[in-house]
Design brief:
TIM Barrel; eight-stranded parallel barrel; three-stranded mixed β-sheet; about 40% helix; alpha/beta; binds beta-D-fucopyranose; about 450 residues
């Protein structure tokens, strides 16, 4: 099923994913430095339940439990992320060897069980000292990221073949620096555009270094969204959402440029002190594969205050600096996140994206759903038919996209464990496995059994 660094695509390869800050806990162990999420979560009012990732699922200390679950699930690969502040507590310079040991053991444990490791280098836990020095709106952060990526590849590149540089840079840039909903919690549209460019530059520089060291499986993970205008009147707003959400990444990655309509909105991207000569050439053509995370479509309408417009992406129009008078209109049914359930959105997105990045294999790097999980079987395990249905119908949508010609190689379910869901704290549960908040004991849900059976039934 795996040919070299990528799944061969003959059948869909299955995986599951987590992220360091969401599962590891032990945020003060073994010399780990503070990240922007530790700082952000400590501020009152940022996380709905006032929680943070200091305990999370305790995965840092329960590696064997997680490995056993992954082995039994039978996934082809496990997508996890590496916490930069464990490797470089200051974000640059000094390496903390104890931080590396955990990932060494994780990678070896996966390989022992026949699970291919897929390492995400940055899933949002920026070392706090780098934010203090300007964060992603500062160019230097991109250079530091490339150094860190090189260090990690030197240590794990003999065993890890699949590398994701960044997870969802849209969230880092626009939720983190424009909407203030994610760490570091700034509300400055121009800073968000500078961050977007430096995230892309960091990706491009890191990919170049990894390729020079012989890596062949380097990609980026984007939360692309299908954008569906509700009416003809909303076509203009939909184009802007597509520009700020999707094309801001895809145009530089594929064509080495920002589109004119985006440049019209985003002054920092017209500033040649920000976008310097050679930057876009570094970003272009850097992908061996593209990761697509999908949860819900964006239905865009012209805002109507009388209609009590609310945002399906969470009152998020602030996250689209330059977008005026638009609203998101999610339909029913919705998950606990308020996100519309629409598998056709995934099919549409994959077919459209395949056309936008010709020749680049696609992996669905995240897909899943938060539900109430309030039903249990006689043994006390959660029975979650809604989640099973969500996974089943979305996997079918991926298969339709494949039949429609999209080169989609893998489907990765978000997520192995109920975990720290960022600004939602522990209130939203996406896991295939429940984690008892008192004991941190892992209790597989019906969806875990269903996924294991589905994987086994795949030829
Ligand atoms: C994505 C994130 C992931 C998780 C899911 C629900 O945006 O990449 O960490 O929180 O959403």
């Amino acid at each position: 099923m795996m040919s070299g660094h990528l799944p061969d695509g003959k059948v869909l390869a299955y995986g599951t994913a987590t992220a360091s800050y969401q599962v590891e806990g032990s945020t003060n162990a073994d010399g780990r430095g503070p990240s922007i999420w530790d700082t952000f979560a400590a501020k009152p009012g940022t996380i709905v339940d006032g929680s943070d990732g200091s305990v999370a699922c305790g995965s840092y200390e329960r590696l064997d439990d997680d490995l056993a679950l992954l082995g039994e699930l039978g996934v082809a690969f496990y997508r996890f992320s590496i916490a930069w502040p464990r490797i470089q507590p200051d974000g640059q310079g000094r390496i903390e060897p104890r931080g590396f040991d955990y990932y060494d053991r994780l990678v070896d444990g996966l390989l022992d069980r026949g699970v291919a490791p897929m390492a995400t280098l940055y899933h949002w836990d920026l070392p706090q000292p780098l934010e203090d020095a300007g964060g992603w709106p500062a160019r230097d952060t991109a250079l530091r990221f490339a150094d860190y990526a090189t260090t990690v590849h030197e240590r794990l590149g003999d065993r890890v073949q699949l590398w994701a540089t960044l997870n969802e840079p849209w969230c880092s840039a626009f939720l983190g620096y424009a909407a203030g909903k994610h760490a570091p919690g700034r509300e400055d549209g121009d800073a968000a555009y500078r961050a977007a460019h430096h995230l892309l530059l960091g990706h491009g520089l890191a990919a170049k270094r990894l390729h020079e060291s012989g890596a062949e499986g380097v990609g980026i993970v984007l939360n692309l969204t299908p954008v569906w205008p509700e009416t003809d009147e909303a076509n203009g707003a939909a184009r802007v959402v597509d520009a700020i959400h999707n094309r801001v990444w895809l145009d530089p990655l594929v064509h080495g440029r920002y589109a004119d309509d985006l440049l019209d909105l985003a002054a920092p991207l017209r500033d040649d002190d920000v976008v310097r000569d050679g930057d876009l050439a570094t970003v272009a053509g850097s992908l061996d594969w593209l990761g697509v995370n999908y949860y819900t479509p964006a239905r865009v309408a012209v805002a109507d205050p009388d209609a009590g417009d609310e945002g399906g992406l969470g009152q998020m129009t602030q996250a689209y600096p330059g977008l005026a008078d638009a609203a998101f209109r999610p339909r029913a049914p919705r998950t606990e996140m308020g996100w519309e359930i629409e598998p056709a959105g995934l099919e549409d997105l994959l077919v459209q994206t395949a056309g936008r990045v010709p020749g680049v294999p696609l992996l669905v790097t995240e897909n899943g759903a938060a539900f109430g999980d309030d039903e249990r079987d006689a043994d006390g395990a959660i029975v979650d038919p809604d989640r099973i249905d969500y996974l089943d119908t979305h996997i079918a949508a991926v298969e339709r996209a494949r039949q429609g010609g999209a080169d989609v190689r893998a489907y990765i379910a978000w997520t192995l464990l109920d975990n720290f869901e960022w600004a939602e704290g522990y209130t939203k549960k996406f896991g295939l496995v429940e984690v008892d908040p008192e004991t941190l004991r892992r209790i597989p849900k019906a969806s875990y059994r269903w996924y294991a059976d589905h994987i086994r039934a795949t030829p």
